[in-house]
Amino acid sequence: MVVAVLLGSVRSDRMGDRAAKWVIAELEKRGHKAVLVDAAELKLPLLDKMWKEVKKNPPAKYKKLQEKLAPLAKLYARADGFCIVSAEYNHSIPPAMTNLIDYFLEEYIFRPSAIVCYSGGLYGGVRAAMQLRALLPEVGMTTIPSLQPIPSIGSSLSKEGVALTQELAEKSGKFFDEFEWYMRAMKAERAKGVPA
């Protein structure tokens, strides 16, 4: 399977890259191709026009945006699933994550998403995850039932994305098993056709 791993924190001292590295390693161990989509690297402007509005013959002021979004559109078109790696800012979704997601719509439809949330505290970003559960289906990404929270991320994952806790190292298998199941099931059904 091809998985787009969306990392939505743009803070200079973020720790989400640890979680993204861990997710990518876990997916690759299972034989999947995981591709990082990093909001900090993309530096997308605040949403003005969606991909569907700039993909064909955009005015000159949207040419750079079109160039940034075109590779994402290609990736998303072949993606079997999306893994959302989200911090929790003020009990909510980071603005850059929402901005990153909102640029696309049709590309997400009938593809599952899995939420990996994290924080420096004990709750592991679950309040942001609950808000993502409202947003993601609205743009077409079904969310799998399980979440993968990472509490105290600074001591749960190394800078290289290696799990430092038994919980993360040994008990995340169900989360990835479930994500795989949804990707396989939805890929098979997409091949048969989707509701119009």
From TrEMBL:
Superkingdom assignment: Bacteria
A GO CC annotation given for this chain: cytosol
Gene Ontology molecular function, alphabetical: FMN binding; oxidoreductase activity
Residue span(s) of domain NADPH-dependent FMN reductase-like: 1-148
InterPro entries: Flavoprotein-like_sf, FMN_Rdtase-like_dom, NAD(P)H-dep_reductase
Pfam families registered for this protein in UniProt: FMN_red (PF03358)
Signal peptide range in chain numbering: none
Protein name: NAD(P)H-dependent FMN reductase
Species per Swiss-Prot/TrEMBL record: Tunturiibacter lichenicola
